[in-house]
UniProtKB/TrEMBL annotation:
Keywords: Carbohydrate metabolism, Hydrolase, Magnesium, Metal-binding. This is Phosphorylated carbohydrates phosphatase. The keyword Cell membrane does not apply. Its cofactor is Mg(2+). PANTHER family: 6-PHOSPHOGLUCONATE PHOSPHATASE (PTHR46193), HEXITOL PHOSPHATASE B (PTHR46193:SF18). It is an enzyme of class 3 (hydrolase). Its EC number is 3.1.3.-. Belongs to the HAD-like hydrolase superfamily. CbbY/CbbZ/Gph/YieH family. It comes from Thermus aquaticus. NCBIfam families: HAD-SF-IA-v1 (TIGR01549), HAD-SF-IA-v3 (TIGR01509). InterPro entries: Beta-PGM-like (IPR051600), HAD-like_sf (IPR036412), HAD-SF_hydro_IA (IPR006439), HAD_sf (IPR023214), PGP-like_dom2 (IPR023198).
Length: 208
C-alpha cells in the first residue's frame, strides 16, 4: 500500500533541463567547453555541481565556487516562468485527498530548490537537499533520509525521477521508481532500474 510519494525536482516537477543546459553552456564556454544536449546528459545531468566542475575542469576551492554561483544565478534568472509538469497539480491534489505524504529529494543547491518551488507555487512538507545530507545522487542516502523522516518503508513509497543518476539513487534505497521522459531516453532510465517510464504525471494517477 502506497503511503508516500517522493519527487526529484529538476526535470521532474518542471522541465528545467533546457534552462540548466543554457546556463552551463554559457558558464563553460570561456573554458573552451561546448555543451550540447548529449554532453549535458552524459556529463552534467543529475550530478552535484562540485563534482561537475572538478570532473570537467579540475577546479576546486574559490574558483569553483565562483563558477558555480555564476551558473546558478544565471539559471535562476532564466527560471522565472516555470510551469509544472502536466498532471502534477492533479496528482498532488489526489495525494492530499488520499491522506498520503509527499516530499522532494534533490541534488539542487538550496537557493535553486527554493526558487524553483516558489516559481511553481509549491511548498512540499518535506525537502531533502543532497548538500545537507552529505552525499548526492546516485548515492541512495538522500532517499534513505527522506524515508526515515517520513517514517515509511521503501516498499510503502513511490519515487519519481528523470535522470539515470536519480533513478539509481531511489532504486538503491529500495523504492519502486518511475522515470519522466523529460530529459533522458527510455532505454537509459530503464537500464538504471526504473520500473516504468511516464510522459507526464497524468500517467502516474493510476498508480495510486
Amino acid at each position: 500500500m502506497v503511503k508516500a510519494l517522493l519527487f526529484d525536482l529538476d526535470g521532474t516537477l518542471a522541465d528545467t533541463d533546457p534552462l540548466h543546459l543554457l546556463a552551463w553552456r554559457e558558464a563553460l564556454r570561456p573554458y573552451g567547453l561546448e555543451v550540447d544536449l548529449g554532453f549535458y546528459r552524459k556529463r552534467i545531468s543529475g550530478r552535484l555541481n562540485p563534482e561537475i566542475v572538478q570532473d570537467l575542469l579540475s577546479l576546486e576551492g574559490e574558483e569553483a565556487r565562483r563558477l558555480i554561483e555564476a551558473k546558478e544565478a544565471r539559471f535562476r534568472d532564466l527560471a522565472k516562468d516555470l510551469k509544472p509538469t502536466p498532471g502534477l497539480l492533479e496528482l498532488l491534489d489526489l495525494i492530499q485527498k488520499k491522506g498520503l505524504r509527499w516530499g522532494v529529494v534533490t541534488n539542487a543547491p538550496k537557493e535553486n530548490a527554493r526558487h524553483v518551488l516558489g516559481a511553481l507555487g509549491l511548498d512540499p512538507p518535506l525537502l531533502v537537499l543532497a548538500e545537507e545530507v552529505g552525499r548526492g545522487k546516485p548515492d541512495p542516502l538522500p532517499y534513505q533520509v527522506a524515508l526515515k523522516r517520513l517514517g515509511v518503508a521503501p516498499e510503502e513509497a513511490l519515487a519519481f525521477e528523470d535522470s539515470p543518476s536519480g533513478v539509481k539513487s531511489a532504486v538503491g534505497a529500495g523504492l519502486p521508481t518511475y522515470a519522466l521522459l523529460t530529459g533522458h531516453p527510455q532505454e537509459a532510465l530503464l537500464a538504471a532500474g526504473a520500473r516504468g517510464v511516464l510522459r507526464d504525471f497524468w500517467e502516474a494517477l493510476p498508480l495510486l
